[in-house]
Write a structure and sequence with these properties.
Blueprint lengths: L11 E3 L7 E3 L4 E3 L3 H9 L11
Antiparallel strand pairs: 1-2, 2-3
Length: about 55
């Protein structure tokens, strides 16, 4: 798996939810883990939605 840094992605955001502080606007979910890890664990593929911020 190629390591994807969600902090550099345009779809990443920080939530106000203490239990799920990280979110992905592209896939529409919040999680404790980095969104790229959630995508990898659920699909066994690296995140194809990653777009680096300018």
């Amino acid at each position: 798996m190629k390591k994807i840094n969600c902090y550099k992605c345009i779809y990443f955001y920080t939530t106000w939810d203490e239990k799920n502080p990280r979110g992905c606007k592209y896939f529409g979910f919040k999680s404790k883990m980095m969104p790229s890890l959630v995508v990898f664990k659920s699909s066994n593929n690296e995140c194809k939605a990653f777009k680096e911020k300018r």
